[in-house]
Amino acid sequence: MAAAAAGTTSTSSSTTTATATTNAPAPTAAPPLITPSSLSQTLTDKLQATHTSIEDISGGCGQAFAATIVSPLFELKNTLARHRMVNGALRAEIAAIHAWTPRCFTPAEWASRGEGEGGGGGAAGS
Fold this sequence. Notes:
alpha+beta; three-stranded mixed β-sheet
């Protein structure tokens, strides 16, 4: 009887495992670590940003960021188009955070604000 009980347990266990595996959601990858530096690097790579300033405004939890982004790709684009470009470049990152506030400028707009020269191209921080 012990052998029969063991067989039943084994069969029951494998059936349960198969059912649980079938109904379980697909495993997801862990979200990437989001830092001002990683956001800045992505913007520099994807949008040819000449200057970025990313500030963590979350109070330390890393879930809210304010950004200043300067890119020649923003030429002839209105604010909405610029924001869409940035959101597209940071699609995965934005999905993992709670708040994202970009300010987008062309190099000429940034220079006219008196912040173009010596602005630290590609620098993250604040």
